[in-house]
Design goal:
It contains 14 helices and eleven strands. By secondary structure, it is α/β, with parallel strands linked by helices. It has two domains: about 170 residues, Rossmann fold (3-Layer(aba) Sandwich); about 190 residues, Dehydroquinate synthase-like, alpha domain. The protein has a seven-stranded mixed β-sheet with strand order 1-2-9-6-5-3-4, with helices on both faces. Strand 5, helix 5 and strand 6 form a beta-alpha-beta unit. The longest helix is centred in the middle third of the chain and has 21 residues. The radius of gyration is 20 Å and the shape is globular. The termini are far apart. The relative contact order is 0.11. The chain binds nicotinamide-adenine-dinucleotide. The site of nicotinamide-adenine-dinucleotide has 31 residues, from helix 3, helix 5, helix 6, strand 8 and helix 7.
Length: about 375
């Protein structure tokens, strides 16, 4: 039987719990009520998730003695914009939200990132709670305090670190998630194993496609959250080790920026990015081929794209992808920083990528597979 697992993100007096499991919503209702001193729950919710789970959310809030104040938004990358941020901030100010109150994000990573950024800047920072409703948001974006929006120059280029005070990752909410979104979120769990948790990776390998559902999925979510919590506690503001969490993302963000609008979803780009990071590590002679093969096999077993030609939103051009990689936030001194791996569970930060070689590599990947 699955029980709720509590993972603590240890950040001194800003530490917070992440409750993971089916029923985390109700289990965490008292903790939520304690964060809503005016007895109102200001919820920034993804319309789709609200349509599907409104009755349960309302019952939980009523049980906790809270009145909901709902701001419904369309989820998706388009929500993470300057105009979206402005509109939401104005709405929060119109509600006269107080600094001791909380903005409660109820949705996927896009709603969480936007609502968190609005919470960070409204009145110089009001409280923040995450109720992630996608797998990606439960295992990754709801934990760690990175918030932000996309700009004309690229994804997530404006934002703030603003930690939540509570995260309720109710795995029951995932039952309504389309299979494609579920797979995309699974990419971030695979990522956690590949970075520094070979035991988790082996469990995922053993589970294969069955790891995407039921108790196996809940356990993997809790493990991935615990892994992320450890890294965030060590390096909250990404001065060093936290950059490892970007494994697959330098490639992934470039694909997202180049893809036909709306055709590609984040986790798919990350899945391919993981495979490419391992393939490129093999090319540089730092990673055994066998480990890259394991990464590719697990990505494929999860039904995720492992070659450029099977990635939605193409065709892709190697030169354009590398140009996009040049705009990544991790870069220093104009050189591209990649996250590469010496093997499964052995990711490292590799500054100063050779742009010519990277372009040649991607060109081969585009044409050969
Ligand atoms: N802040 C961070 O640390 C961090 C980390 C990783 C990713 N991200 C960001 O997260 C975003 C991606 O998040 P996402 O994958 O959750 O996308 P998303 O927020 O766009 O949600 C995906 C889709 O699922 C729908 N949906 C949400 N909950 C549902 C439910 N329970 N049932 C059915 N449908 C539901 C949404 O309406 C949307 O159409 C990206 O913008 C990425 O940059 C942030």
């Amino acid at each position: 039987m699955t029980t709720i697992r509590t993972v603590d993100v240890d950040l001194g007096d800003r530490s917070y719990p992440v409750l993971v499991g089916p029923g985390a919503l109700e289990h965490g209702s008292e903790a939520l009520a304690a964060l809503c001193p005016n007895r109102r729950a200001v919820i920034v919710g993804d319309k789709t998730a609200l349509d599907l789970h409104r009755a349960r959310l309302d019952a939980m809030l009523a049980g906790a003695g809270l009145d909901p104040v709902l701001i419904e938004l369309d989820g998706g990358e388009a929500a993470k914009s300057w105009t979206g941020l402005q509109a939401l901030t104005d709405q929060l100010l119109a509600l006269n939200i107080e600094r001791r109150e909380c903005v409660i994000a109820f949705g996927g990573g896009t709603i969480g990132d936007l609502a968190g950024f609005a919470a960070a800047i409204t009145k110089r920072g009001v409280g923040f709670v995450q109720i992630p409703t996608t797998l990606l948001a439960q295992v990754d974006s709801s934990v760690g305090g990175k918030t932000g929006i996309n700009t004309a120059a690229g994804k997530n280029l404006a934002g703030a670190f603003h930690q939540p005070s509570l995260v309720l990752a109710d795995t029951g909410l995932l039952e309504s998630l389309p299979e494609r979104e579920l797979r995309a979120g699974y990419a971030e769990i695979i990522k956690a194993g590949l970075i520094a948790d070979e035991t988790l990776f082996e469990r995922l390998e053993t589970a294969g496609a069955s790891g995407l559902h039921g108790d196996a999925l809940t356990a993997a979510i809790a493990d991935a959250v615990a892994f992320k919590a450890r890294i965030v506690a060590e390096d909250e503001h990404e001065a060093g080790r936290r950059a490892l969490l970007n494994l697959g993302h330098t490639f992934g963000h470039a694909f997202e920026a180049e893809a036909r609008p709306g055709a590609l979803i984040h986790g798919e780009a990350v899945a391919l990015g993981l495979v490419l990071a391992f393939d490129y590590s093999v090319r540089l002679g730092v990673c055994p081929q066998e480990d890259a093969d394991r990464a590719r096999a697990l990505v494929e077993a999860a039904g995720l794209p492992a070659t450029i030609n099977t990635l939605a939103g193409g065709p892709y051009d190697a030169g354009a992808l590398v140009a996009r990689m040049g705009a990544d936030k991790k870069n220093a001194g104009g050189a591209i920083t990649l996250i590469l791996a010496r093997g499964v569970g052995k990711a490292y930060i590799a500054p100063g990528a050779d742009v010519k070689d990277l372009t040649a590599f991607l060109n081969e990947e585009v044409t050969q597979r």
